């Protein structure tokens, strides 16, 4: 009971830090909210093991470095402006954007996400890949229309797609998927706030449901998917559709969010960015299909570490929920 109470307390402070950053009217208050958020998330990472201790330390160092860059850049802008010596904000603006991109784990600042995610639980992975992106994205939105962010978005989409091709760890696959989706989110951020809201909410719903299922079934490697769905045909189909929606296969929800971004980019004649995003989405579809290939097409074999799992109510609810969310575009556009 004590363990649950202190986790609940830190979760409240985690949300409070994000809300302070979103509602801040100065960079100091935004920095303060980011620090509260970071110091509340660190105790949740601790599991008294070697991997968790290493992940906690790496997360603390990266977040501290990005916070120092943010605070130093804002202080320089304030001092130079007061002395009327600042003629161009662009270099300092780039530093502020770099600090936010480091917190988001966007390429080329993505390596820390790949390194620490192995020492985290699935629940902490959900928080890292979804909630922890809200505050930096809200601050980046105030500095949009920057060519630097456009370049980072294309780089993140391609690195996230290529990096996931040779991974067998499901956590690393989800991390590279998050980096690839970050490229799409940065593009939606540069277009409109409503598009960013829609993409982030749909991405969070799908990724959270996938990770919850992996957590309930205690799956951490690609070959475990092959065995844990023995004689569960309906669950195989639901999980496959869920992964296809995550990859952006039409006409599922993941395709709708990407199609809206591509439509806006094409209307604004951003052909190069659209082409790069399309190629990255096709590459990511390769390892998403690989996650379902052996489960559906290959015959089952018994291995030594296999154990029979019972599909309990929370798992059924999670699968049905994501299945209905993934099929929602089909239901909407059906002719009546």
Molecular structure report:
With 336 residues, the protein is an all-alpha fold. The chain has one domain (2-332). It is 76% helix and 0% strand. It has 16 helices and no strands. It has helices at 2-23, 27-45, 50-82, 90-104, 111-116, 122-129, 134-141, 147-163, 170-191, 193-216, 224-228, 233-247, 253-267, 271-297, 313-326, 328-332. It is globular. The termini are far apart.
List keywords for this structure.
single chain, 336 residues, mainly alpha, 16 helices, 0% strand, globular, disordered C terminus
Mean pLDDT score: 82
**Whole-Å distance between the termini?**
52 Å
Low-confidence stretches: 299-311, 330-336
Helix content: over 70%
Question: What amount of the residues lies in strands?
Answer: under 5%
Number of domains: 1
The biggest sheet amounts to: none
Task: Name the helix and strand elements from N-terminus to C-terminus, one letter apiece.
Answer: HHHHHHHHHHHHHHHH
Q: Characterize the overall form.
A: globular
The value of Rg in angstroms is: 21 Å
Class of secondary structure makeup: mainly alpha
The tally of beta strands, per DSSP, is: 0
Tally of separate helices: 16
Short précis:
One of its GO terms (cellular component) is mitochondrial inner membrane. It is built from 16 helices and no strands.
Q: What secondary-structure arrangement, pairings included, does this model have?
A:
Layout: H1 2-23, H2 27-45, H3 50-82, H4 90-104, H5 111-116, H6 122-129, H7 134-141, H8 147-163, H9 170-191, H10 193-216, H11 224-228, H12 233-247, H13 253-267, H14 271-297, H15 313-326, H16 328-332
Helix pairs in contact: 1-2, 1-7, 2-3, 3-4, 4-7, 6-10, 8-9, 8-14, 9-10, 9-13, 9-14, 10-12, 10-13, 10-15, 12-14, 12-15
């Amino acid at each position: 009971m004590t363990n649950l109470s202190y986790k609940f307390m830190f979760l409240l402070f985690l949300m409070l830090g994000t809300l302070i950053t979103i509602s801040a009217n100065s960079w100091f208050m935004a920095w303060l909210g980011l620090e509260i958020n970071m110091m509340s998330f660190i105790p949740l990472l601790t599991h008294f093991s070697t991997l968790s201790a290493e992940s906690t330390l790496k997360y603390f160092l990266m977040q501290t470095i990005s916070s120092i860059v943010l605070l130093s850049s804002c202080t320089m802008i304030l001092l130079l402006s007061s002395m009327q010596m600042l003629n161009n904000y662009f270099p300092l603006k780039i530093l502020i954007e770099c600090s936010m991109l480091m917190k988001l784990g966007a390429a080329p600042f993505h390596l820390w996400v790949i390194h620490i995610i192995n020492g985290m639980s699935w629940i902490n992975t959900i928080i890292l890949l979804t909630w922890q992106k809200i505050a930096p994205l809200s601050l980046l939105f105030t500095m949009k229309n920057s060519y630097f962010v456009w370049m980072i978005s294309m780089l993140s989409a391609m690195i996230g797609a290529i990096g996931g091709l040779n991974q067998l760890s499901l956590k690393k696959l989800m991390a590279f998927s998050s980096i690839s989706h970050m490229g799409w989110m940065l593009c939606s951020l540069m277009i409109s706030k409503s598009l960013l809201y829609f993409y982030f909410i749909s991405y969070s719903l799908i990724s959270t449901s996938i990770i919850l299922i992996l957590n309930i079934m205690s799956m951490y490697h690609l070959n475990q998917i092959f065995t844990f769905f023995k004689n569960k045909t309906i669950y195989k189909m639901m999980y496959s559709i869920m992964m296809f929606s995550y990859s952006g296969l039409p006409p599922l929800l993941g395709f709708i969010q990407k199609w809206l971004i591509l439509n806006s980019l094409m209307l604004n004649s951003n052909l190069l960015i659209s082409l790069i995003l399309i190629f990255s989405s096709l590459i990511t579809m390769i390892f998403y299909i690989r996650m379902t290939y052996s489960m559906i097409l290959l015959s089952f074999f018994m291995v030594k570490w296999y154990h029979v799992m019972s599909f309990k109510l929370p798992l059924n609810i999670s699968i049905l929920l994501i299945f209905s969310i993934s099929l929602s575009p089909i239901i909407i556009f059906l002719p009546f």
